[in-house]
Amino acid sequence: MQRSGRLxxxxxxxxxxxxxxxxxxxxxxxxxxxxxxxxxxxxTLGYTPSFSYDGSEDEIYSKEEYDDLNEFFDEHLxxxxxxxxxxxxxxxxxxxxxxxITNDPSTGKSIIFNRKNLGxxxxxxxxxxWLENGNNTIVLKDPSGRKIDSAILSINxxxxxxxxxxIPFKALTGEWRIDGHAEVSYYxxxxxxxxEYKPPTMEVQMEKPxxxxxxxxxxxxxxxxxxLSGAQINNTPVxxxxxRAGYYPSYYQMNEHLPYNTRVxxxxxxxxxxxxxxxxxPVNDSALVNAELSDSIVSTFSYYIDATITDATGExxxxxxxxxxxxxxxxIYIPVNEVxxxxxxxxxxxxxxxxxxxxxxxxxxxxxxxxxxxxxSFNRERSVDQWYYDKSSWNQWFPDKxxxxxxxxxxx
Length: 412
Fold this sequence. Notes:
mainly beta, Immunoglobulin-like, flat
């Protein structure tokens, strides 16, 4: 069967012309435009605006959907349940606080369900009616969903309620929760964990190098295990990985052995501690050696050491450490004041230190310059090819991004 009818006219696309203010700004109503063209003289710049949508407009009050505001507030009532801790032991107390939330009927955004936001009459009526309808109880449940305790709920004028529960000494371990009749927030759901306390049987630490190190040179770290129960610590297996990350100074100097700012796994092995509970891990980063890093450019690389040690009883302990190496491992420190009396600059102390070794002896060349102009020396990374406004206006509106002349220097 064929249908006949009049063709609908295509919608007419409208363009809105606006001029910027004296500061180069315009205001556009939300979702009014899906594209913007900025035109100045013979130059045009296109821009696509992005508008966020949080869904709150779908939650506003409508007389067609709700009988009255009472029904609207009741339907959107929910709880945010906060506990004073995330993990408890059997026999401990759980202190909690509940904040009641509903929606603003005009905007749909979340508001606290209290006397100030709803108004005294509506608030008192809704609290009384809601609690009388069998919603006046909150329950403490264990991991199996079994009811352990309960409390009679009330809502104060500030839209909150607080109390505490006692966890039994023979409580099940796992995830517990506080539950009620109102919907519970996903982020503050009143969930917490109950775990038995087990004193640690061992501890582990990493001993970093003690001598000066330069990026691209071999080095080693030591993992040291200590027993807290008197057990043997020799020949204990240690599963470990060593990885490296860092920015190479120039993209064009990269090679296939050195990915650009990528975390690369260098080692993934299992070793065993010696009679003193020590495992030495040698690291030879061949990719950096082959890269022939320059001494004139500062390149910094971070090494991450992750290890898991498991003893004969099955108890395990983890270690996560890192260290940073640079092509310029020595730092120069010269403490100076902002202002000195003219003609009486004192002797300046100069200190050279290395990250692992500490103070080191080094020859230092120092040059002192006098800046001719008082304005700060500031060069933009990219020069401006066309100014829409004069430089003085730009400096006034955006002083942090102003393009200032380079300071003149004279050696003294």
